[in-house]
Input
Amino acid sequence: MTSPANTASVNSTPVICTRQLKKSFGSKAVLQGVDLNVPAGAVVGLVGTNGSGKSTLIKCLLGLLRPTSGTISLLGEEPWNLSASAKSRLGYVPQIVRLYPWMKVRHVVAYTSAFYDSWDSTWVETLLDRWELPREHRIAPLSPGQLQKLALVLALGYRPELLVLDEPVASLDPVARREFLRSLLELCQDERHTVLFSTHITSDLERVASHLAVLKHGRIVLFDELDAVKDRVKRLRVTAANDLPPDFAVRGALRTEVNGCQALTAVADLDENLVDELRDKWRADVTVEDLNLEDIFLELHHG
Amino acid sequence: MADRPARLTGIRRPSRLGAVWRSYRTRWLLWALVAGAGFIFVSFAWFIWTEPPNFMTSAVPSAPQPSPAVWLSPQDDGRQVDWTKLRSLNIITELDHCEPLWTPGAIPRLESLTIFDNISDDQLAELCKLYDLKSLTLYNLEAVTADGLRPLRNETSLEYLQIISLHGLHDAPSLDWPPNLRTLVCDDESGISLLRLNEWRKLPRLTCLSTRLVLLEHRRPAEMLDSLRGFPSLTRLFVLELPPDFPDVASVQRALPNLRVRPNSFDPVRGQRAATILIGRLLVIVLLSIQLSSQFVTPASMLTPHFTRSHVSPVVGGSVALFLMSLSLYLLAGCSILVAMGMCGASVFLLASATRLLRLMTGMNGYQMPGFNNFGVVISLTVFPVLGIQLVSTLFGAELDWFLRGQYPWLTLMLLAGSLWGAFDLVAWQIGLQHDLEESGCGNVPLSMFDIGGWTEWSRSVVAARTGEGKKPAFAYRRFDSRIERFIEQMQQRKSTTSVALWRLGGAGSMLGEWLKATVVFLVVCLIVIGVPVAWLAPEWWSQFGSATTAPVVFQLLGGGLIMPLAFAWQRRPMQEMELLRPASRRDWASTWFRGVASEIAPVLLVAIAFCAALQWTGQLGSWSMMHVTLAAVLAIGIMGIIFAVGMWMFTLTSLWQIALVACIAWIAVVLCIVIPILLQSHLHEWQSPAILIPTIAGLYSVTLAWRRWQNWEVGQVT
Output
């Protein structure tokens, strides 16, 4: 499935721009030089293993953490001193949702709406109904999934120009996840809204993302349009006439497994020359296999 | 099959117990409370144990001193006294020195008079003519004749009379006494004559008598005791000197079973030591209770094999050790063995009663607002020390001493029975905690009193669906809901002050109201529980009960009102990630927070100052003038500024040790808040020194530092 956002032509002006962004907590360096340009209108899926620094990166981008070094530009401003007008164009759903336990659902909605001129009450009511959120219930007893739904409603309610979501669907059931993706597509269909969201559910990412960013060891190791990534990252199945040597290596390989005369390797940037090169050098039959996002993620992190 | 349980759990019993003990060690809150409890306990112990022993205190009700009261010394010319408002006058100088006393209409409200100087027949007659006194204390009657006492016959309003010595009046065939006397104190060193006893027996309303039980006529005490049995209204007898053949006051009590016979004086140190041990025990039991509830609030308590036994055993073991230790301390303090056991149980009984009461108050056995359950322990820590020490050991110190000497066996047995019930009730409640929470649909709600979620009446609809009970929210919440909607409307109109107002409503304000409501109701119940026995056991002290309880209770509420807004605001800390990203600059966000918390604390300061001013106005602050109140207010503003700044600073900290350090600073500030006024009160002339401004400057500087800290706070580190 290809989403409208996926096929959208994106504006060239970056909404998020980082240069050599570093962040350390004491002696522990979490971000070690992140360079990232997120163009306007893009839906960027940020993936990485647990502890890779996704949340830290997001918090630095939003001005919730101060970078140790490097520069960040968010909506054209420095995040640490983000202006009120920039914040009114910015939406955020944290990984762990904390809302006011003493308020009712409708209170929180009304309370949040009071801050934003562009609050879309009709859409919010639709979302509340769609996600079956009980308006008269207080926040305290809501389940984590209900809380996450509510946080998403609050973040989507004013149709922010930039929406940053830190694992937004982690606690949602499959139905709610589909509803969330649907809402995200509704938001992004006008191609004026930018979304950055971290997730471990790559199938969701494939549904809505236009771009993929892979964070590994505190650096962005891959950032490109999703289709381009899928075109570039491939798995090669090599079957040679004779046994392959244990140090069998492929240029640009992310991971290589050798078993007798057979080898399985994943490459980050496939070109026709590489396939021909392998065929010629090892007198091998080379099959190129497409990878889905989960496979790409695994290959990137096994390398 | 024999080792099947061990295979099932995978952990042997000693290891299980070890793991439970380690859970105590690793619970930082527990250690923080232990440190706090230890500090308080050592402080109390230091103050009490350094008291000089055998410093006897009068057990007899003292003369009422309605405010405003004045002590007129030879150095005092009385120019600063507002004579028209004066209700109590104590003259320690020559009688003639006090000119207004003899001027008709000069002291129209005078009710209580104490005269140390010699008084003559004429002067006494003049006083009786000028005033309708309720209380009169005469230290020297050397110049008064039998006829001179005759005007007292017409003093129908006089209820309290204290005469230090009758001197030459012992042999007078008859003396006149105020007809409506309720309390009579006669401390004559030479004893009392049967003539006087028979005269007092004719006083129809006399309920309290203090005298020496030694007859001047050198007769056997049987006649005197017979005479005392014939008093129509007498209920209390204070014995200054025992009659012959009576080894102690208890033997007199046995001879006069219809009267409450007590020694004229008592050693207050025994009661203070007992109260100190009581508080120390209460603190430790509270800590054990908090730890136990934190263990039994998890589903693991229901699902893990042997959980209950493993977790209750350390508590039982610790309680037994604590019991033996405190039993020894009580015995060292001079209590009888039975009383010592009863006092050991009193702490458990008090905590169980507080917890049970709050659970009843919050409905559904407390699960609709689970935070209230543990709140009981906090209230126990704040209410009982005040009521226990302030009232019982001071106002009713003599009765407490009598009890500690084992003279109230029925009360001791009741305490023992109550403590057994309390221990069973507390442990049974803790063990069934998780089950009850799940049954009442509160599984997701934090039970801890340190989590504001537990203070929310969150589940009425869920509980109503399960139990079929009424769906209407409590009155306080109906008000809360309508207020929040009203404020949101104002917020949408973008009024400049509404963001702070809304913050207050959603944050500390509403919860503070709940806290205040619970505390006030609890205090009222406690006052009734203590006040009714007081009215029954010691009616002559009833008049002092109100004045003795008002100030401690008000200041206790104010102290809570100062700390609670910070504690409640702390609960919003994890939400700061989202709040900082609202359309407001970092500066505006910090400003809203500072103004919000300050507006929560400011009323406490204003009420405290107003209360001090009221106390001064009614003369209950002794020699304090309004200047002193003003300077105290300046001092209080500075110290509250420090507490406010420290509280705000703590929001920005992530390290436990940093928080502990700052908490210690806050604690020192609170101690300063109490100690400095006390020190300055004894050196009143130093009040006008510029040093008084030091806390104010320190407060302002602290707030500035906290403000800068907020500007650089990495909010993202909180979660």
